[in-house]
Amino acid sequence: MAPRIWTGVAAPVAAVSVLLLVIAVGSAWYLRNMQESVAGLLTENVTSMRAAQDLELSVRDLRNQGVRYLISGDSTLLEPIPRLRERTMAALGHAETLGTTAAEQGLMQKTRAGLQAFFAEYDRMTGGEPNKADYAKTLALIDSVLAEEVINPTREYLRLNEGMLAKANEENQRTTARLTTGLTALGSCGALGGLLGGWVISAALRRSMQAAEQRLRTTARQLDEAARTAEDTATRAGRSADALDDVAKSAAAVLARLKQTERDALRAEQLAWAGQMAAGIAHEVRNPLMAIKLMIQALAAGRTGDRLRPRDMQVLEDEIVRLEQIVGSFLDFARPPRPDKKPIEVGPLVQGVADRVRGRAVVQGVDVVVEVRRPVVADVDANQLQQVLYNLLFNAMEAQPAGGVVRVRVGTPSDNPVLEICVEDEGPGLAADVRDRVFEPFVSTKEAGMGLGLSICRRIVEGHDGEITAADAAGGGAAFVVRLPLSRSTPPARSDNPALART
Ligand code: ADP
Question: 430 CA to middle of ligand 1, Å?
């Protein structure tokens, strides 16, 4: 029920909450940016206005100073003129750098041109001796050039900035109003979303609890009915009834029946195995026994004289050895000994087994090639691992009666930290009708095969927590791969290692 509520209700509510959070964070960021840009704009306009006021004041001071000199004729009044001139040009330079729009720059250009014209004319008229200046001309110059060409554009510059300031202020107010509306809406949505989500979750929980309650009621009713029925039965039988006791008894009977069925199934399986084993043993033992019987009968009938010929003795011995082998194999299969695992470097062990089968391989024209890619240590029972390798190598040689190559590779695959021993041949490969069953007991395509070799190999490998698989080799033939866990310890010195000592 909990996952259903989560996927059906809580997940969409959580998604809406996350969405609201994202919108809120986005709005806060936008608001901050907006405030920053408006504040920047306002500061810029105010600074420009200050610069324009400075400029106007400087020009006015300049004019007043000139007019006062012309009225009084006091030449000391001309002394501050160079300083005022410097202040005026500096104020103009400041206003120029702050005027960023084309209109502001145009007005400042006009102001500069006016000031330059004024000072050029003033310099020319005074010729270095200001007290010699013509009163009327100088006054006209001050009024026409300074007032017309300097003060007017400066004022216009000031008005322009006042207008821009008012505009920025209005824009700021509009943005604030918009954001106030947006944030109010967002807050309302959040609250509404929370209310709605809570309501939907509580409704879903209520529904699920009602359903659970309904089921509980039904179960209780059924239990009630069962108890009443049991009570009726017991009453009819004339004894005091205990419904729970009856239910417990029935359950115990059912459990007992189930256990019995399980035991029967296990027994049937064991019997089937025993039957299969018996059939296998009978099949294998019959041929050597028959040979021995025929020979003894021939001896009894006097057909071989009163004693067996050396050739018959040899056949008799061979058949007895075969019987021993058969019994040994069955014992190996039926009761595989517990592995006595020790850390062993596997490469030399494989080399040793290959060396020991090489004599037979040479006779058969088979070349046994061993590749040990890197030293690998695994916890193994050396004798049992040798037994596996003998089986695989003999099978590989038997698959190539007319000669060929058996390749044994030892290493660890790059993608898997395990010991891997791969035995590959160039024979005909696994027969189609047995390829999925080669590890099962009594599966053989060979005339004299018992079909136990590979099943014993599998038991041994699994006893080492490993696995053995069969597949087609890349260049035809069969490939058997044994995988075993790597050892965590280092192998004992060579002389302590029985497998290595023998190789
Ligand atoms: P057996 O050797 O007595 O037949 P095994 O269990 O060793 O019993 O092998 C079972 C069967 O698996 C063999 O009869 C054969 O059909 C198949 N087999 C095993 N090794 C090879 C191999 N190298 N190439 C082809 N078939 C193989």
Answer: 8
